Amino acid sequence: MIYKADPSSIRSFLEDTSNIKNGYTPGVFFPETVEELTELLATAVSSNRRFTIAGNGTGTTGGRIPFGDHVISMQQLNRIGEPRKLDDGNAVITVQAGAVLEEIQKKTEACGWLYPPDPTEKLCFIGSTIANNSSGARTFKYGPTRNHISRILVVLPEGDVLDLSRGTCRADEKGMFRLNLPIAGEITFQSPQYRMPDTSKHNAGYFSGERMDLIDLFIGSEGTLGVIAEADLSLIPLPETVLSALVYFMEHDDLFRFVTLLKNSANALNPRAIEFFDRNSLGFLAGKYPDVPVKSAGAVFIELESTENSREEHLELLFELMESCGAMTDESWMALDREDQTRLREFRHSLPLLVNDWLSRQQESKISTDMAVPDEAFRELFDFYKSSCEQQGFVYIIFGHIGNAHVHLNILPRNHDEFLQAKALYRKFVGKALQLGGTLSAEHGIGKLKSEYLVEMYKESGIMEMVRIKKILDPSLILNRGNLVPERYLATEQPVK
């Protein structure tokens, strides 16, 4: 096993995109086999070690940043298997946790298959996307990562290994799980009993559901219950063709009506992605793309799957919908071939780069939201974002996954006073989203940055349910301390076996 402790080799493990700068660690382990990973965890207590599990540094909430614990890097566990066709016409592929999402996507698509989850950051490790239940633009049609995981191999904190296939271990009618493990012995525990928010995207706290599958407890648990070492990903046949469009609007009411009609289950277009750019986002993009119409109030990006036989019908339906909603049809961008779709994809991904370039000249960090609400409450949250920022004179942008009632508000402070004001306003946004029945985090997770906000969402009773499960599966508290569950709650209850 590789181990590094010199400052130059471990410096990169003290950062991610969260802007946390004060992490520290004695050293970093790089297991090259599942057996080496298992040994690290099995000997953690006798070696007086705790561990923070590190993905590829693309997270936004500080989850991989250690504060005195050793780090386990998953980058050497990076094998990607071959797609295996199933009897139902779909396929499955086995991958190790350190495999890079982009490499998995390239391999599966070259073989004629699609792995539907599509997080924006392509260099993330697949194990991290499972531990974080990641999502992206295609979540509107296909749902988050959880929906596409058929098996995980997870190493528990005491060194037991669980090979879990979906459907093989479910909670009983009282929500109880019963496991008989070689090291931990017989353990019985109840699934979380709190209620999940009624949103189509949610990644805040342990999963809860009636007669839930044990695999779903680990998916989205942010590495606090075990280390996902390997997984089977579910694949579907690659779509025959994809159509993309960027549709501009003069008025928000027209834009929101267009989105509502797109989301209607009776709509034959059945888009896989519905994304939003507000006027301010388009203003940033106009500096690089001069064809952006200056008078537009916002734009909707659409991506839909089609076939050669239905392509013209889909285009006709889309144009009819655009015209019925007063879209700026002549100025809108239809990407009908691969080259134009590549350019439109570059347009979408240029926004964060342009914003980060602007921020680099202000020397302040942005304040970002990741909240989602039920569909019927989305316009109220959007208007609250917009009016609050304008009342305080902030530079801001709103963009993202409008199809899932989930957009990102980025406040871009011009000085430290504005940064402090924006942080205070963020707490009001949390309160508003929760009041509307929403979630604190739709896709980025909780990590270290948002753990205290999680108390507002689940109250202390819900946090203690997470503590109860954490202490049963990780009785010595060796894994990812400080992530998801606020540390102060871990000292308040003893594990019960």
Describe this structure in words.
With 497 residues, the chain is α+β, with helices and mostly antiparallel strands. It has three domains: 2-73, Uridine Diphospho-n-acetylenolpyruvylglucosamine Reductase, domain 2 (2-Layer Sandwich); 84-237, Uridine Diphospho-n-acetylenolpyruvylglucosamine Reductase, domain 3 (2-Layer Sandwich), CATH 3.30.465.10; 241-435, Vanillyl-alcohol Oxidase, Chain A, domain 3, CATH 3.40.462.40. Helix content is 31%, strand content 20%. The strands form four sheets. It has a seven-stranded antiparallel sheet, with helices on both faces. Strands 5, 6, 7, 8, 9 and 12 form a six-stranded antiparallel sheet that branches. The chain has a four-stranded mixed sheet with strand order 1-2-4-3, with no helix packed on it. Helix 8 (279-286) packs across helix 10 (338-360) and helix 11 (378-391) packs antiparallel against helix 12 (416-435). The longest helix is centred in the last third of the chain and has 23 residues, at 338-360.
